[in-house]
């Protein structure tokens, strides 16, 4: 009986142990399940976090894309409008590159015309004519002028006055808007309004900044256009004035030519008319002086000699005048030939020996190689030398020097005739070659002259294709220089 009881107790104990073990196992399993559950919850949380981050990333990416597109659009618009110099075209360009890319389907721009005290529409994107009419009527509100005056930008998400905010949205039929002033320094000011029917969540401060930049670019372009217009107008006016002045000048030139021709014809005619009686006077005085018609008392002879002398002077003057007018009118042509300068200078020096000796003036000559010959009308060029050397003698005090130098000058010879005479005052140098011009100096007061010599010299030289100029220092001396062609 004891034996089965022991077995039973044993079995019962085993059962209890097994049960205990089972319970422990279950507990462990439960713990594991709990841990598993926790891990699953954690994974779930992380998955949710990843999903959230992904959505945020996508949103940021979209925002970035939008901003990049906006910046591109802004860059394109800026490029177009800053190179445009016409007000209408500026807004046409903005229309072409529609502002949709900046995130706005509706845009308007108005300029304030001070003269008419009115806003003028210059840009319309997205509005019907009827809507525009209503908008213009609503612009009477001071608010829009204040935007220009106070230079501020307003938008639906920064405008604190809720009722005004609502009113603007209603007028412009938008959910969100930005209004920025257009402020060119020159010309009409105004404002730019951009809007969208989408809620303002799409807009940010960045958008306001972007529209501000655009408004600044438009202002700059308007200023450029205005300046260009002004410059263009000034240029047109200037061109018109130049045209008018040119016409006036050419008319004056024509008149001068006519007058000059009349003067030349007159001088020529008068000189001719004077020459004939002068020739008779000279003829009669010569006959009387020869006493072929009978003896004459000394007092009469003296007067007749005076008449003879003055007649010679008059003939000389008339001949000079006639020559000047003939050369001027092209009636005399230069008969050019190869002439030796040495020969010409020697001949003139010979002719003037008495005058040179009288004042003990030394005449030096220097003919450089390559400047020995000239291609000129011998008779006329001799008159040039006689006049210039004669003047040099006349205006150089005793014991002075006159030096003549000939040097090559391209295909011409340059001849300088320098003296150590009284010189010419600076203010007279510009008039020295004009007809009848004489400097008021003691020598001129004493000695007679016509003031025609240099005028004739200049015409002869220019008729040869040369030019003449003078350098002088008062009380030191004068140098006349001229060019004359060389033989080819
Ligand atoms: P004229 O000698 O008959 O007065 P010109 O036409 O030859 O006329 O000269 C004009 C003026 O130029 C002279 O009156 C004189 O005042 C000035 N002039 C010309 N040559 C000289 C010179 N070598 N030195 C100083 N003055 C001169």
Q: Could you characterize the architecture of this molecule?
A:
The structure is a single chain. This protein is 59% helix and 16% strand. The protein has helices spanning 2-82, 87-96, 129-138, 142-150, 162-172, 205-290, 298-328, 341-351, 353-358, 378-394, 442-446, 453-463, and strands spanning 106-113, 118-125, 154-155, 176-182, 190-196, 337-340, 362-367, 373-376, 401-409, 412-419, 468-473, 477-485. Among the domains are: 81-235, Beta-Lactamase, CATH 3.30.450; 337-485, Heat Shock Protein 90 (2-Layer Sandwich). The strands form three sheets. The chain has a five-stranded antiparallel β-sheet with strand order 2-1-5-4-3, sandwiched between helices. The protein is α+β, with helices and mostly antiparallel strands and 488 residues long. The longest helix has 86 residues, at 205-290.
Layout of strands and helices, then pairs:
Layout: H1 2-82, H2 87-96, E1 106-113, E2 118-125, H3 129-138, H4 142-150, E3 154-155, H5 162-172, E4 176-182, E5 190-196, H6 205-290, H7 298-328, E6 337-340, H8 341-351, H9 353-358, E7 362-367, E8 373-376, H10 378-394, E9 401-409, E10 412-419, H11 442-446, H12 453-463, E11 468-473, E12 477-485
Parallel strand pairs: 7-9
Antiparallel strand pairs: 1-2, 1-5, 3-4, 4-5, 6-8, 9-10, 10-12, 11-12
The structure holds adenosine-5'-diphosphate.
Residues 387, 391-392, 395, 419, 421-422, 424, 432, 437-439, 444, 449-455, 478 line the site of adenosine-5'-diphosphate (ADP).
């Amino acid at each position: 009986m004891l034996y089965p009881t022991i077995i039973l107790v044993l079995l019962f104990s085993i059962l209890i142990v097994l049960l205990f073990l089972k319970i422990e196992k279950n507990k462990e399993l439960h713990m594991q399940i709990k841990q598993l559950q926790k891990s699953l919850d954690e994974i779930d949380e992380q998955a949710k976090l990843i999903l959230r981050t992904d959505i945020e990333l996508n949103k940021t990416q979209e925002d970035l894309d939008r901003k990049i597109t906006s910046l591109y659009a802004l860059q394109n618009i800026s490029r177009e409008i800053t190179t445009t110099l016409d007000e209408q075209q500026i807004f046409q360009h903005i229309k072409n590159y529609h502002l949709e890319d900046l995130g706005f389907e509706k845009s308007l721009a108005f300029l304030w015309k001070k003269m008419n005290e009115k806003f003028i529409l210059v840009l319309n994107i997205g509005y019907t004519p009827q809507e525009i009419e209503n908008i213009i009527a609503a612009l009477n509100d001071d608010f829009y002028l204040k935007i220009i005056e106070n230079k501020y930008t307003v938008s639906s998400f920064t405008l604190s006055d809720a009722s005004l905010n609502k009113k603007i949205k209603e007028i412009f039929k938008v959910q969100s808007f930005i209004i920025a002033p257009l402020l060119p320094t020159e010309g009409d000011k105004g404002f730019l309004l951009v809007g969208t029917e989408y809620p303002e969540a799409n807009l940010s401060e960045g958008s306001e900044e972007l529209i501000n930049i655009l408004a600044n670019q438009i202002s700059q372009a308007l200023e450029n256009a205005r300046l260009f217009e002004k410059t263009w107008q000034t240029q047109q006016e200037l061109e018109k004035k130049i045209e008018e002045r040119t016409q006036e000048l050419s008319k004056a030139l024509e008149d001068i030519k006519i007058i000059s021709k009349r003067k030349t014809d007159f001088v020529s005619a008068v000189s001719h008319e004077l020459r004939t009686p002068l020739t008779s006077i000279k003829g009669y005085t010569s006959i009387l002086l020869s006493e072929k018609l009978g003896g004459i008392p000394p007092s009469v002879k003296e007067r007749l000699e005076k008449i003879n002398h003055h007649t010679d002077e008059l003939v000389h003057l008339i001949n000079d005048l006639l020559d000047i007018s003939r050369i001027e009118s092209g009636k005399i042509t230069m008969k050019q030939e190869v002439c030796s300068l040495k020969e010409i200078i020697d001949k003139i020096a010979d002719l003037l020996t008495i005058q040179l000796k009288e004042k003990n003036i030394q005449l030096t000559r220097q003919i450089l190689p390559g400047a020995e010959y000239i291609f000129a009308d011998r008779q006329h060029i001799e008159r040039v030398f006689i006049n210039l050397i004669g003047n040099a003698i006349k205006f150089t005090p005793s014991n002075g020097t006159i030096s003549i130098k000939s040097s090559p000058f391209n295909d011409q010879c340059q001849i300088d005739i320098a003296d150590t005479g009284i010189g010419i005052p600076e203010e007279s140098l510009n008039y020295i070659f004009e007809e009848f011009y004489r400097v008021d100096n003691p020598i001129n007061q004493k000695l007679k002259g016509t003031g025609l010599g240099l005028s004739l010299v200049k015409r002869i030289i220019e008729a040869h294709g040369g030019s003449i100029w003078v350098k002088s220092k008062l009380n030191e001396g004068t140098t006349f220089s001229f060019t004359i062609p060389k033989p080819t």
